[in-house]
């Protein structure tokens, strides 16, 4: 009985981990297709330039 509950917990953890990876990949792909004005990466770079007055 104890081995069965451990196996169930491992399976649930593995399923949750796989779902998390799938969600991460989906969000990453969606962010790649954003127009440039909404790009998270370019916003971060422009903010860094603004804060440090880099040209």
Describe the structure.
The chain is mostly helical. Helices cover 80% and strands 0% of the residues. The relative contact order is 0.07. The mean pLDDT is 78.
Describe this protein with a few key phrases.
55 residues; mainly alpha; elongated
Strand-helix topology:
Layout: H1 2-32, H2 40-52
Major beta sheet summary: none
Q: What is the overall silhouette?
A: elongated
Distance between the termini: 66 Å
Mean model confidence by pLDDT: 78
Helix content: over 70%
Structural class: mainly alpha
H and E order: HH
Tally of contiguous helical segments: 2
How many individual β-strands?
Answer: 0
Radius of gyration: 20 Å
What share of the residues does DSSP label as strand, in percent?
A: under 5%
The low-confidence parts are: none
Summarize this, please?
The protein is mostly helical and 55 residues long. Helices cover 80% and strands 0% of the residues.
């Amino acid at each position: 009985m104890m081995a069965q509950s451990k196996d169930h917990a491992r399976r649930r953890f593995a399923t949750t981990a796989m779902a998390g990876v799938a969600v991460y990949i989906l969000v990453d792909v969606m962010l790649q297709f954003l127009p440039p004005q909404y790009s998270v990466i370019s916003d971060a770079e422009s903010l860094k330039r603004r804060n440090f007055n880099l040209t």
